[in-house]
């Protein structure tokens, strides 16, 4: 087993205990080859215009889009962070499995085909046009950019931690090994994204999904079989381990309260339905039927990993306890070790170095795939929704693409700087973004598609309310992390009932009520807007490049009051 004296670094450096941090030739070749493949695909499918840059020319089929949804969705939080949360907090971690899958049923039933029929480039585009408001568009664009930033911090943290196993401590320019890996990985990610846009990113995501799912399942089956944990169905057989693991892993609500479980699961469900980089996938397909089927395929591809993550967490927890130290208690497993439990379990099981490297490469692929979707959504919010629609309506396609690429670079720089000293584990960082999407954007999408009387004033009031409710617990819990003089949240009672990780449980009902109340107290939206909403639910098929607004502009959209 690993010599801990060579793998536990100085206090204060973000480094997983027990992880073999050293340069490894074969795993390095695997990862470098993978990254070069991503760059090559991005170059081959590089963008030429805004249609390819933001929605891949609306040319993606349902199976390919389903794989892209899976890769886009299964970030470092899914590949690494979910197993980490289950390992560190046991039953509470299952709130992430429940929340991150249930949201797709709402998307499938209520939003996927309707969003495709509305037919805009971006989520802020939908908000701005649906509510006839540049102010609403700007709020949605800023929210989209903020979601991309917060969400991507977790991806950068995952790439940095996993990169340590493969490349070792490459500390340069006064940076620690972890920080150097963050800078290197984010530079590569930003480089290929500025070149490829949505078209190249989508092609890459199908490849990235294949890599990450093969790596995850290969590691799971190898660890389970070699250690006698499982044979052919580790997703079920891991239950035999539960009696051997601590109560913190197997007993409900030992680590966190029932209320926090509900708040977290709810926030993740509504956040899933409000994430711009997920919704934009339904704009990249040719029809509403393809949008629905790509959602079904996406959910299938996601469940392949999600049903396996609890098993990997159980195997990793057992191996950590046997080979490194106590999982729970003081000090117990650190958050950094938890965040790489998938890689650590494969290493501690004595698997060949190339297999551990493959599992690590899968984590990097997952993080890059999601970062791609986030940065495309965030940059399109700046370039398309703010620059083109508000600042410079006469912008040429070349100018729009240039601003989009500069926005990707800006997002990359901000994310890298924040990830050098992250405030929370991977899954928690990602959950903050979900709470924001659920509190601000989900109510606008749902009401905008299903209640034609939702108007500009209601949307502005609702979005502002959601932003305020999300910001307060974030300040309460995240700011103290960087203040040595403060131990814990500013207001513990607020943290108990409005936790940052699950604030959408409180925010969403209030935002719905505010939006509906203000809409009812003010003038109804124009008839043309109502007709566009009705057209989103029409059974009549539309052309590949056609939108509900296009139909309304003809006799086909005429509907009597």
UniProtKB/TrEMBL annotation:
<dbReference type="Pfam" id="PF00474">
    <property type="entry name" value="SSF"/>
</dbReference>
<feature type="transmembrane region" description="Helical">
    <location>
        <begin position="258"/>
        <end position="283"/>
    </location>
</feature>
<feature type="transmembrane region" description="Helical">
    <location>
        <begin position="458"/>
        <end position="476"/>
    </location>
</feature>
<dbReference type="InterPro" id="IPR001734">
    <property type="entry name" value="Na/solute_symporter"/>
</dbReference>
<feature type="transmembrane region" description="Helical">
    <location>
        <begin position="402"/>
        <end position="420"/>
    </location>
</feature>
<protein>
    <submittedName>
        <fullName>VC_2705 family sodium/solute symporter</fullName>
    </submittedName>
</protein>
<feature type="transmembrane region" description="Helical">
    <location>
        <begin position="496"/>
        <end position="521"/>
    </location>
</feature>
<feature type="transmembrane region" description="Helical">
    <location>
        <begin position="94"/>
        <end position="113"/>
    </location>
</feature>
<feature type="transmembrane region" description="Helical">
    <location>
        <begin position="206"/>
        <end position="224"/>
    </location>
</feature>
<dbReference type="GO" id="GO:0005886">
    <property type="term" value="C:plasma membrane"/>
</dbReference>
<feature type="region of interest" description="Disordered">
    <location>
        <begin position="537"/>
        <end position="561"/>
    </location>
</feature>
<dbReference type="InterPro" id="IPR050277">
    <property type="entry name" value="Sodium:Solute_Symporter"/>
</dbReference>
<dbReference type="InterPro" id="IPR019899">
    <property type="entry name" value="Na/solute_symporter_VC_2705"/>
</dbReference>
<feature type="transmembrane region" description="Helical">
    <location>
        <begin position="354"/>
        <end position="382"/>
    </location>
</feature>
<dbReference type="InterPro" id="IPR038377">
    <property type="entry name" value="Na/Glc_symporter_sf"/>
</dbReference>
<keyword id="KW-1133">Transmembrane helix</keyword>
<keyword id="KW-0472">Membrane</keyword>
<keyword id="KW-0813">Transport</keyword>
<feature type="transmembrane region" description="Helical">
    <location>
        <begin position="26"/>
        <end position="48"/>
    </location>
</feature>
<feature type="transmembrane region" description="Helical">
    <location>
        <begin position="295"/>
        <end position="315"/>
    </location>
</feature>
<comment type="similarity">
    <text>Belongs to the sodium:solute symporter (SSF) (TC 2.A.21) family.</text>
</comment>
<feature type="transmembrane region" description="Helical">
    <location>
        <begin position="426"/>
        <end position="451"/>
    </location>
</feature>
<feature type="transmembrane region" description="Helical">
    <location>
        <begin position="69"/>
        <end position="88"/>
    </location>
</feature>
<keyword id="KW-0812">Transmembrane</keyword>
<feature type="transmembrane region" description="Helical">
    <location>
        <begin position="173"/>
        <end position="194"/>
    </location>
</feature>
<dbReference type="GO" id="GO:0022857">
    <property type="term" value="F:transmembrane transporter activity"/>
</dbReference>
């Amino acid at each position: 087993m690993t010599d801990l004296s060579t793998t536990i670094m100085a206090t204060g450096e973000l480094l997983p205990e027990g992880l073999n941090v050293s340069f490894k030739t074969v795993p390095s070749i695997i990862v470098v080859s993978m990254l070069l493949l991503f760059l090559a695909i991005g170059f081959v499918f590089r963008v030429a215009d805004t249609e390819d840059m933001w929605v891949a020319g609306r040319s993606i089929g349902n199976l390919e889009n389903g794989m892209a949804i899976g890769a886009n969705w299964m970030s470092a939080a899914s590949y690494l962070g979910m197993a980490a949360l289950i390992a560190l907090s046991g039953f509470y971690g299952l709130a992430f499995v429940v929340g991150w899958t249930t949201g797709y049923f709402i998307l499938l039933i209520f939003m996927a085909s309707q969003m495709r029929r509305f037919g805009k480039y971006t989520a802020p585009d939908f908000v701005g046009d649906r509510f006839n408001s540049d102010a609403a568009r700007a709020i949605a664009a800023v929210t989209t950019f903020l979601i991309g930033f917060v969400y991507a911090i977790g991806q950068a943290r995952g790439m940095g931690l996993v990169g340590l196993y493969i490349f070792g401590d490459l500390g340069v320019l006064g940076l620690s090994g972890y920080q150097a890996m963050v800078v290197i990985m984010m530079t590569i990610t930003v480089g290929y994204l500025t070149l490829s846009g949505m078209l190249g990113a989508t092609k890459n995501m199908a490849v990235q999904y294949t890599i990450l799912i093969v790596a995850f399942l290969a590691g799971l089956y190898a660890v389970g079989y070699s250690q006698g944990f499982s044979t052919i169905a580790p997703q079920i057989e891991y239950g035999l381990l539960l009696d051997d693991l601590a109560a913190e892993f197997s007993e409900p609500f030992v680590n966190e309260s029932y209320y926090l479980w509900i708040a977290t699961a709810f926030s993740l469900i509504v956040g899933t339905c409000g994430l711009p980089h997920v919704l934009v996938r339904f704009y990249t397909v040719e029809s509403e039927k393809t949008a629905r089927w790509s959602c079904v395929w996406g959910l299938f591809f996601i469940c392949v990993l999600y049903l396996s993550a609890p098993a990997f967490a159980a195997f990793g927890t057992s191996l950590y306890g046997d080979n490194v130290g106590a999982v729970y208690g003081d000090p117990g497993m650190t958050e950094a070790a938890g965040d790489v439990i998938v890689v650590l379990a494969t290493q501690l099981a004595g698997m060949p170095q190339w297999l551990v490297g493959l599992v690590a490469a899968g984590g990097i692929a997952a993080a890059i795939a999601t970062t791609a979707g986030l940065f495309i959504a965030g940059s399109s919010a700046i370039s398309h929704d703010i620059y083109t629609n508000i600042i410079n309506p006469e912008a040429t396609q070349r100018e729009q693409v240039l601003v989009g690429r500069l926005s990707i670079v800006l997002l990359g720089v901000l994310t890298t700087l924040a990830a050098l000293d992250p405030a929370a584990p991977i899954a928690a960082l990602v959950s903050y973004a979900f709470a924001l999407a659920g509190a601000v954007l989900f109510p606008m999408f749902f009401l905008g598609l299903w209640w034609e009387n939702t108007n500009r004033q209601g949307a502005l009031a609702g979005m502002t309310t959601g932003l305020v409710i999300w910001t307060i617990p974030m300040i309460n819990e995240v700011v103290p992390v960087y203040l040595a003089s403060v131990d814990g949240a500013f207001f513990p009672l607020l943290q108990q009932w409005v936790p940052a990780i699950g604030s959408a449980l409180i925010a969403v009902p209030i935002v719905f009520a505010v939006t509906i109340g203000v809409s009812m107290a003010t003038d109804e939206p124009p008839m043309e807007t109502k007709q566009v909403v009705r057209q989103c639910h029409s059974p009549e098929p539309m052309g590949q490049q056609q939108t509900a607004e296009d139909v309304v502009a003809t006799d086909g959209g005429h509907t009597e009051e």
